[in-house]
Structure formats: structure tokens, C-alpha cells
Design brief:
about 375 residues; eight-stranded mixed β-sheet; globular; binds flavin-adenine dinucleotide; FAD/NAD(P)-binding domain; D-Amino Acid Oxidase, Chain A, domain 2
Length: about 375
């Protein structure tokens, strides 16, 4: 039994050096998950020379431990999002995540990133009658926006035909290699201890830069004043199962439970945090019997024959209103964080947004994700 994610187990980390001296760069980025790497990629493509400083290895934290769903929208269904943000804002967020999907498609093609990207759609499954009513309302509203969605009442499911899935470690590490091939310099094994608008400090030296972007998501509170709290998510994976158990990635019970089957037949099941909300907080990256038993219970219902090969945990960064913080803090430091369990759905595009803002460009979405919003 591996206690690491299936993705990290399959792909060896690339060898980037540690940063042992002082350095200077156009932009200094802290963290090499999807948020930091996407920011570096877009900056390098625009001609800047960013430096990325990562404490562990590229994609070793949440970005290497997720389910690899590339969904449109936030964690909640669209009706719930409308209730929370108002319809106009909920629609803008929806369109932003559609843009994220388009960007991933383009970047993967342009950079020839082999990351098992597939567009099999996703199923949104209701856990009770109230949620089913919202799932139905969401589908009807989004259909008017031209979204390809159909309802399956007997399964209390909405099928969103345009959603995607990928191998998150292959994607983020592939994108890191593309960024490094242009002008980004990536350093691993180097802990950043302090940030300021004109640079950062590491354990061993200083980086001077024209701007700093903090992309450490769940770990933000150690470096900047951001309203992010660390929340744990757990998953398991199995050996290949010869039959199709799940047609497409599924997202159930308000996003608390999710599962998919990879093209190679392996099953992945994650979530069930709703059964242990009080426990599943903090930065401790460990599995618990309480949640793993729930994941396995569901597995036994659907595929009793499947052998569990991997169990793991990852730490997510939840924002105060479930939307990411992408922009400039009052003190002058930029941030790209707070994905609330949906970083694959947002961060390729928030990376582009923050790269534009760092370069002084204006963007329509600035107000949507400003870290200074109420
Ligand atoms: C079990 C699970 C399932 C998920 N499933 C999905 C999914 O299917 N779809 C989806 O969209 N999202 C999913 N998510 C959420 C997604 O993984 C995250 O939103 C996303 O990976 C966040 O990326 P990030 O780059 O902001 O953070 P991270 O990937 O956590 O990267 C932050 C990096 O910062 C580094 N760091 C921290 N502090 C410092 C420091 N002081 N100095 C230097 N480096 C530092 C860390 O080592 C880390 O590498 C899931 C998450 C979990 C845990």
C-alpha cells in the first residue's frame, strides 16, 4: 500500500536546484503548485524573467494530490452559487472557469504536454431532494448560456458534457518544463521565510525582484495576511478494474464526494469530508481511518473486486467566500491562492490574470478575485 498519491508515485520529480545564494529577478513567485507554475508560465511567455522558489518539489502538495477534475464553475452547483454571489457574478465566475478549460486545452496542445487530458464531461449528482432541485435549476439556467448539459432524473444527475480531466502531476510538471524552457528559473527545496513587494527571504539568502507573487495556497497564513484556512482532503486509488465502473468523473453531495475511473481502469475515490468536517482541518498531510473507511465503503458498493493501492491526503486552502484571491494585496504583494478545493478549475487562468496584473495590464476580472474584496 502506497501512502502517496497515485500521481506522485507514477512520476519522478524533475531536478531543479535549491537556491543557496542571493538572486534577482523581474518577478519572484513563491510556491510551485499549479498556481505558481501557471503564473510563471504566463509571465515567461509575456517576456518576463520570473524566479520560482518552492519548499518541496514542483506539484508535491495539493497540486499533486487532487482528483484531476477540470470542472466549470465553483464547488457548489450554479443555483447555490447564484444564491451566494448574485446571478451576474456567478455567471462571470462560470465563464472564467470555462476560459480556464480553454486555456488548459490550448496550453497542453501548444506545449505538447502529455497529461492524459480528456473531455468526457462530468456528472453532478444530488444527495437529497433539495440538492436535486438546485441541480435541475442550475442545468436549466446554464443551458440558456449555451452550456451542453442534460438531466438524468432517475439518477438525480446532471451531465455536463464539456468538462475535462487530466493527470495533475504530468500537467503541472510539464507546464513547469515549458516555463523553464522560456525564461523562468525554478528552485526546489528552498523555504521562503518572508515576503515584501520588492523581494523575499529564503532560509539561505535574499531575492530582489520588481514584484512578488505568493502562490502557497493552504500555507498562505505563514507569509501574508489572507483569509485562507487549511482544509484536508483524502483519496484512495485502486489497481486497474477490467470493466467500466464509472462513465465519467462524478461530483456528488455538493462536491463533498467525487470519483472517476482513469482510462487505464484504475478507480479514484475522494472526499467524504462532510462526515468528518471537524477533523479535516489543519496542515497535517495524513490519512485517517475515519475518512478512508468511508471511501472504501463506497468502493465496496461499486467495485467489490478492486484492490486499493494508494491512500493519501492533501491540504486545500479555503477562502472566506469560496472564490480564489488573485491580485494585489494592499501592502503591494501579489497573491494567487485560496482555491477552495478547485485549483485545477481556476489556476491556469488566475495565473494568466495575475501575470497580466503584475505587468500592469488591466483585466475585466480584476474585481472578481481581488483579495481586498469584502
Ligand atoms: C484530495 C484533493 C482532491 C482535489 N481534487 C480537485 C479536483 O479534482 N479538481 C480541482 O480543480 N481541484 C482539486 N483539488 C484542489 C487543488 O488540488 C488545489 O486547489 C490546487 O492544487 C492548489 O494549487 P496551489 O498551487 O494553489 O497550491 P499547492 O499545490 O498546495 O502548492 C503550494 C506550494 O507552495 C509551497 N510552499 C508553501 N509554503 C512555502 C514557503 N514558505 N516557501 C516555499 N514554498 C512554499 C508548497 O510546498 C506547495 O508546493 C483537490 C485537492 C485535494 C487535496
Amino acid at each position: 500500500m502506497e501512502m502517496t498519491s497515485i500521481w506522485l508515485d507514477e512520476i519522478a520529480a524533475d531536478n531543479y536546484p535549491s537556491l543557496d545564494n542571493d538572486a534577482s529577478a523581474d518577478v519572484a513567485i513563491v510556491g510551485a503548485g499549479i498556481a505558481g507554475i501557471a503564473t510563471a508560465y504566463h509571465l515567461a511567455r509575456a517576456g518576463a524573467k520570473p524566479i520560482v522558489v518552492e519548499a518541496r518539489t514542483v506539484a508535491e502538495a495539493a497540486s499533486g494530490r487532487n482528483a484531476g477534475f477540470l470542472l466549470a464553475g465553483v464547488a457548489e452547483n450554479f443555483a447555490a452559487a447564484t444564491e451566494r454571489y448574485g446571478e451576474e457574478r456567478a455567471l462571470r465566475v462560470w465563464r472564467f472557469t470555462r476560459h480556464n478549460q480553454k486555456l488548459v486545452r490550448e496550453v497542453v496542445a501548444r506545449e505538447h504536454i502529455d497529461c492524459d487530458l480528456a473531455w468526457n464531461g462530468s456528472a453532478q449528482l444530488a444527495g437529497d431532494d433539495a440538492e436535486w432541485a438546485e441541480v435541475g435549476t442550475s442545468a436549466k439556467r446554464l443551458e440558456r448560456e449555451g452550456v451542453r448539459v442534460r438531466l438524468i432524473p432517475e439518477e438525480r444527475a446532471a451531465i455536463y458534457e464539456e468538462d475535462g480531466e487530466l493527470h495533475p502531476v504530468k500537467y503541472v510538471r510539464g507546464l513547469a518544463r515549458s516555463a523553464a524552457r522560456s525564461a523562468a528559473r525554478i528552485f526546489q527545496g528552498t523555504h521562503v521565510t518572508a515576503v515584501a513587494p520588492d523581494g523575499l527571504r529564503t532560509q539561505r539568502g535574499r531575492v530582489r525582484s520588481g514584484a512578488v507573487v505568493v502562490c502557497v495556497n493552504a500555507y498562505s497564513q505563514h507569509l501574508v495576511a489572507l483569509r485562507i484556512r487549511p482544509v484536508r482532503g483524502q483519496m484512495l486509488a485502486t489497481a486497474a478494474v477490467a470493466r467500466r465502473v464509472f462513465d465519467r468523473p462524478a461530483y456528488a453531495n455538493r462536491g463533498y464526494r467525487y470519483w472517476r475511473q482513469r482510462a487505464d481502469g484504475r478507480l479514484l475515490i475522494g472526499g467524504w469530508r462532510d462526515t468528518a468536517v471537524d477533523d479535516e482541518v489543519g496542515e497535517e498531510e495524513r490519512t485517517t481511518a475515519r475518512v478512508q473507511e468511508q471511501l472504501e465503503g463506497f468502493l465496496r458498493e461499486r467495485a467489490p473486486e478492486a484492490a486499493v493501492t494508494h491512500r493519501w491526503a492533501g491540504i486545500m486552502g479555503f477562502s472566506h467566500d469560496a472564490l480564489p484571491y488573485a491580485g494585489r494585496l494592499a501592502g503591494g504583494v501579489f497573491v494567487n491562492a485560496g482555491f477552495t478545493g478547485h485549483g485545477m478549475a481556476f489556476a491556469t487562468a488566475t495565473g494568466e490574470l495575475v501575470a497580466d496584473l503584475v505587468r500592469g495590464a488591466s483585466r475585466n476580472e480584476t474585481d472578481l478575485f481581488t483579495p481586498e474584496r469584502p
